[in-house]
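Consortium newsletter contribution from the modelling node. Members have asked for a concrete example of what our holo predictions look like. Here is one, prepared for the adenosine-5'-diphosphate complex that several groups have been discussing at recent meetings.
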Amino acid sequence: MDGIIGSSPAMQSVYAITRRVAPSNASVLLLGETGTGKELIAGAIHALSSRASGPFVKVNCGALSESLLESELFGHVRGAFTSAVANRTGRFEAAHSGTIFLDEINSTSQILQVKLLRVLQERELERVGDGGTIAVDTRVIAASNRDLTKEVQEERFREDLYWRLNVVPIQLPPLRKRPEDIPELIVHFLNVYSAANNRDVVHVHEETIEAMQRYHWPGNVRELQNYVERAVVMAEGDEFTPELLPDDVRYGAPSSSTVSVRGVDLETLVREVVEQGVRAAENEKADIHSFVVNRVEKELIAQVLANCNHVQTKTAAKLGINRNTLHKKLKDYDLEATESDE
Ligand SMILES: Nc1ncnc2c1ncn2[C@@H]1O[C@H](COP(=O)(O)OP(=O)(O)O)[C@@H](O)[C@H]1O
Ligand SMILES: [Mg+2]
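And here is the predicted structure:
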């Protein structure tokens, strides 16, 4: 996995699937937020396959209009439309004996999805404006930064194409879920950009790492890469100090969605807890709402109570609820507190 950094368990399992699937001819679907390394993994699959000596062709399906994308992918014959002044080879043909990487596959139109399905099923295509068919020997790797199952549910993405592409899915984890990879990534990009800019920024402050591990990284590795590059360019000496980070990273953005606990943002954490709670409630055949909400509330009260040495007024104030309400909840949840605290 040349140039792919990160040894967290989540990335280890990505590498394992990548190695396993690479030598086959199977279609691969890469899923994950923007900047998580989908293109990098697509390149690795190609490089580790028997097609490595063939071409690796990338097409960003989100960047072109429907008609342009169609002739980009399949080619066209002269006169097929007004601006088609000559025959043009499509990218599928250009990728013959190699691999084609269809990025942002979720943004293709329904009509194009039908044509892609045909290529995958029949292994042949038609150039635009041409009646003849051309055999296709190209491995397909597709990527989406949207939840494709949801796109299918909402009928924006064809289910048959989804199953054709999704022979082997690989889910790239967001950076905020693997803060342990951050120090390695910093060192890697410091080396890359120090070399590129004739600098030698080698000392990373502990505070810099801590701030970066707290941050929620909506742009994932691409965003981190950008900040490290900026730091190398702006650094006065050989140190990566926290002052070189954008304020959002250094101080943490104020919105609730960016509050993070050990590098995991609060919303993600809550979502996971609730998902597990819902599953547990379903197993127990219990009323989901009270099952999950009561457990979360009991745990919250128990923790704040302990922090307040079991003093009720203090606990109520800290929770921001009325003392009588707290009193009732303590009884409901069978929690111990000192009655009077003064
Ligand atoms: N694990 C990683 N190790 C090193 N660089 C990475 C890693 N993941 C992403 N990058 C870098 O971040 C940028 C975005 O990666 P890319 O593969 O284009 O992401 P995506 O296709 O998911 O948007 C690229 O410059 C890539 O080299
Ligand atoms: Mg990309």
